[in-house]
Amino acid sequence: MFWAQLINGLTTGSVYALIALGYTMIYGILGLINFAQGEIYMGGAFVAVLLLATGKVPFLLAFAAGMVTAALLGVALERVAFRPLRGSHPLVPLISAIGASIFLQSLALLLFGPNDRPFPVQFSFQAITVAGVPLSSLQGAILGAALGLMALLFAFVRYTRYGKAIVACALDRDTARLMGINVDRMVSLTFFIGSALSGAAGIMMAIYYNATYPRMGLLPGLKAFAAAILGGVGNIPGAILGGLVLGVAESLGAAYISSGFKDAIAFAILILVLLLRPQGLLGGRGH
Amino acid sequence: MSAYLLHLAVMAGIYILLALSLNLIVGYAGQVSLGHAAFYGIGAYASALTALNWHLPFPVAALAAMLVTGACGLGLGLPTLRLKEDYLAIVTLGFGVIVDLVFLNLAVTGGPDGLVGIPPPVLLGLSFRARGLYLLLVAGAVLLALGFTHRLVNSYHGRALRAIRDHETTAQVMGINTSAYKIVIFTLAAAMAGLAGSLYAHYITFINPESFGLHTSILLVCMVVLGGMGSLPGSVVGAVILTAVPELLRQTHALQDLIYGALLVGLLIWRPEGLLGRGKLSLKFLQRE
Amino acid sequence: MLTLKSVQAGYGRLPVLKGVSLHVREGEVVTLIGGNGAGKTTTLRTISGLLPVRKGEVQFDGQALHRLPPERIVALGLALVPEGRRVFATLSVTANLELGAFHRPDKRQVRRDLEGLRERFPLLRERGHQPAGTLSGGEQQILAICRALMAQPRLLMLDEPSMGLAPRVAAQVYGILRELKAGGTTLLLVEQNARAALKLADRGYVLETGRVILDGSASDLREDPEVQRAYLGKGYQEVWE
Predict the structure, then answer these.
(1) What is the longest distance spanned by two Cα atoms in chain A?
(2) Nearest chain C Cα to A168, which residue?
(3) How many alpha carbons fall within 13 Å on the CB side of residue B17?
(4) What is the domain count for chain A?
(5) SS3 of residue C203 by DSSP
(6) Buried b / exposed e across C21-49, counting CB within 10 Å, b at 16+?
(7) Chain A residue with minimal CA distance to C80?
(8) Phi/psi of residue C21, each to 5°?
(9) How many Å apart are CA C171 and CA C173, to the nearest integer?
(10) Minimal C-alpha gap between A271 and chain B (Å)
(11) Is the ipTM of this complex over 0.90?
(12) In tens digits, what is the pLDDT along chain C, a chain of 241 residues?
């Protein structure tokens, strides 16, 4: 029972981590909370689901398409709802993000209707055992994919020119410009990558819970943000750690304490962390 | 039709109270609160329970609501004193969500169905069940609140608050007890929101957690930002507009939220400082980086 | 090489530069001295594009700079070592250096330049993997200068390189600047420490409340009684030369 909950927690946690990475990167470079991140997650899921429903698109291609659409959606979002508001009071882009979130949710409602859609592709998932721990191959697949994406991001930030440039922009925007870095482009790139990850997360959850619907991004978005704060906002390994910890805590808490308050667990943890150690587990950076 | 307009007016009045209280926190003390609807809800439930369980008259219930919410504001304000803006935003957000969940899950608050049969106020032998009368009650409350906040904002304390908002360290250095101010504002604002909650509960006569959730908190922030932070008339304008607009948009049915969201983004891009707000807080501009 | 003509600039509604004119010729070392708030840093930030030019012109090799963003100005050959060093604290020393050459397309030459700098300043190699924030003030200053050099600038601007450094360390930094001068690098140096700056420079400008009030060769300025009284502290002990 414990192991099942743990694995479940790690699985949902790794998905939270992917979304949290989007939040943390955007927060790091712009200092703003992208409340519409959940809708980008939802967008990626819908695109993949719709493509797969046609029956003519192979799974991996649909997955990639979902990620790319989410990425482009994120870049467009930044252009339209955030860039014009540079330099205003921090609450202003926040409200803009909320407006965008409402807009996207209702757009999805209009286009797709409110009902849950099952995932169009049937996989046969078996129970497997890894290192003595029982899990389903679905969980294994999600964990593997999520961890793989995270590793890619980590390498990108650590070893590539653009990755370092993004960190530089988060640390000290003006000095980054003195290096010849075009901050606007780095911001767009950040949104592209963060949104792609969120899109992937959306597709994974669409498979895991076998449900895709316009409001699916709401709670995971908030929880992922809690995870980003938990790990230390602006800190990439922190977002990953935060997501995993949150997923596990939520899963175990729901099983052993109360399932009604499951959603509150994320926020209770969040508040505790912020009151006791505001910089998060690993310490934030950037803004 | 007239009954409908009266209803809108009452709701607008209640939202004005809420926007004013939030503006105290956001526009004057320079803090962030993304969970303000929690105080609204606590006030509503406290007032309702006082009236339902102990059959106490409206003024007592309203007062109880304000005391309880004020205490909660104090409770929230104290530990969050040293949090930076963004973290404060998250904590208040989390607070709002947790309170919402408490309403949903506790037996005494009636769970998802909430509480029903809340008695309308009876003052001076007159029952305020009728909409027109209730509007008078709400208008009275709004005027009181406006008067109070206006006095506060234009007093020495108001200037102290603005100093805290614009540059907290400098204010501290000048001897302003920033912690005390922040806590007092949180408490006052919470109490005001609690009053609004009480008014709401005794007006609609039934309440459930739906009205006090995250989206209401966000709506309140939108009202304050749209109207202009740090502008009292701005809060009034923001509250009225964001009460009226969803109603007007109801005509458009399915496109309703779509336009609402687009409008929000559009208005902000057009006027980031809010419709009646002053220009960018000039001191912030001076900070390089 | 670099010309400013009656440049006005400022922050928000606050005017700081009220009409600054100066020029720097190739191979020269020019210094800008003045008290706090005179506008020295503002001048450099305006030249490098971080602040908009309200009125007047900034020209580099005949090219107008005042509409260009900082990213493009660096590419033209103007690099700034900002006030307070501003290294990217959580990035490694090597990453900082690499970022200095961000806009350069010729990767091989960049690597060679990096090696060259490492040869000259072994600390860059020794501390290559350390986060830049763990370096001492003096080391960070050296890093910041090398980072700017990685951009292969034709004109290097420095904003108060000796600020906050112990005298011995500051002397070390000035030693490096002397090497650069000997190597023919054009320098525009902003300093509060007028004594050290005027020793190094060929020419200087004195800035006060947003205007140039004096200019001339460095030796002339050193002799000038006004400058001596205001900025050189007559009777000041030469603690470090």
Answers:
(1) 56
(2) C88
(3) 31
(4) 1
(5) strand
(6) ebebeeebbbbbbbeeebbbbbbbbbbbb
(7) A178
(8) -125, 130
(9) 5
(10) 5
(11) no
(12) 888 888 888 887 788 888 889 889 988 999 998 887 788 889 999 999 998 888 888 999 888 888 889 999 999 999 999 998 899 998 999 999 999 999 988 889 999 999 999 998 988 899 889 999 999 988 999 999 999 999 999 999 999 998 888 888 888 889 999 998 888 889 999 988 888 888 889 999 988 888 888 888 888 888 887 777 777 665 455 544 4
CA atoms of B21 and B1, how far apart (whole Å)? 30
Q: Do C80 and A167 touch (CB under 8 A)?
A: no
Which pLDDT does position C225 carry in this prediction? 77
Domain-embedded: residue A88: yes
Query: Using CA atoms, how far apart are residues A82 and A184, in angstroms rounded to an integer?
Result: 11
**Neighbour-count burial for B139-167, b at 16+ CB within 10 Å, e otherwise:** eebbeebbeebeebbeeebbebbbbbbeb
Query: Whole-angstrom Cα distance, residue A150 to residue B148?
Result: 53
Contact B286 C14 (CB under 8 A): yes
Determine contact: C12 vs chain B, CB below 8 A. yes
- pTM score of the predicted model: 0.85
Tell me: pLDDT of B51 over 60. yes
Integer-rounded Cα Rg, in Å, for chain A is 18
Q: Strand runs (DSSP E) across chain C, as ranges?
A: 2-11, 14-24, 29-34, 55-60, 63-64, 78-81, 155-159, 186-191, 203-208, 211-217
Paired with C157 in beta bridges are: C80, C188
**Amino acid letter, residue A92:** V
Return the amino acid letter for A86: R
- Domain extent, residue A149, equals 21-218
What residue ranges in chain B does DSSP mark as E strands? 115-116, 122-123, 126-127, 206-207
Question: If DSSP codes are grouped into helix, strand and coil, which group holds residue B135?
Answer: helix
Q: Which residues of C touch A (CB under 8 A)?
A: 48-50, 69-71, 74-75, 79-80, 82, 86, 88-91, 95, 98-100, 102-104, 147, 151
DSSP string, B219-243: HHHHHHHHH-TT-HHHHHHHHHHHH
For B45, what's the count of Cα atoms within 13 Å in the CB-facing half-sphere?
27
The residue type found at A17 is A
**CATH number attached to the domain at C2-232:** 3.40.50.300
Non-local CB neighbours of B34 within 8 Å, separated by 6+ positions: B89, B90, B92, B93, B96, B217, B218, B221
The answer to whether residue A201 is domain-embedded is: yes
**Sequence spans of domains, chain C:** 2-232
Say how far apart CA B185 and CA B140 lie, in whole Å: 22
Number of C-alpha atoms within 13 angstroms, CB side, residue A167? 25
- Side-chain half-sphere exposure of C76, counting CA atoms within 13 A: 20
Q: Does residue A65 lie within any of the structural domains?
A: yes
Give residue A75's identity as a one-letter amino acid code: V
Helix axes A2-30, A183-208, angle to 10 degrees: 160
Average pLDDT of A61-73? 95
Nearest CA in chain A to B257: A106
**SS3 assignment, position C208:** strand
**What is the amino acid identity at position C198?**
L
How close A212 comes to chain C (CA, Å)? Answer: 40
